[in-house]
Amino acid sequence: MPFIPATLLWTALNVWLVDRAVCLLAPDAPALRLAACLSPAVVTMVAFGHFGGALAFLAVYALTRADARPAVSGICLALMSVKPQFALGLGVFLLLTGRWRPVVWALPATACLVGLSLVAFGLEPWINFVKWTMPFHAEVLSVYAREALWTVVSLYSALRLMGFSAAAGYGVQCVYAMVALIGAAALAIRCGMTPRVVALGLFAVLAALPYFANYDLAIIAPALTVALFADRPGESRPFLTFVPATLLWMAPVCSSAFDALSLPVVSLGVSAVLLLALYGQAIACRRAAPSVPGLAVAGRMTSGKA
User: Is 238 helix (H, G, I), strand (E, B) or coil?
Assistant: First the structure.
């Protein structure tokens, strides 16, 4: 196809998949679907031509249907291997929550995708990826070439902008990743895959990576929209209060401006918001544990019927 029609079709497909991801979490909620599609993260995704909408739908499906449809969830996880670091992180998160069957299904599905790529394109692209692409990305991150990483909003990038060494940045990032993933997994085990837990799980998987960009936040945009704006009877504690919610919502369009000034405001803020949300939901989940309606909602989401 010519470039412009192909771009329009690609963009429409990804925005539509953002809409479908919201439907997986909150059926019959047109206002939430519109809010997600017009969110700053999705607008940023469109501007960069990224495929965050596809990743969002696949990730939400894999998490919410992991128990009811492990095979299809595994295929979704395999399809996400086009962004291998994210697929690996999501697989680790599923394992931490005890949902190992989709991960097992993902292994042969990923092998099939690799085989198809070899048939279609041959071995040379894989050789180039291992010999050139991976070392180049590792060097750019370790040296921290800011002109090439101005969209990155990870904690690692914040520490590098503040003058810390690569070793210190990776060390702190590893500790942060373990805290975020284990905390989100503990919530999933305790509360089930509610929209709030799905949002936190995807957020934790992204934030655990030393490299993720502002347009990658579109992956959590559908779940975040539902978590922030959907009515949740029986949940007395808000998902996020106004200030951290606004910071997270506006982070994609603010990060580049602050990074141009070498100020890691957004990166530090996004990292802190995740910890704050995990703490808040841990308290809310503990308080709501005896509540029958809350447990019913968690059960429906886990079974894939909501």
Answer: coil
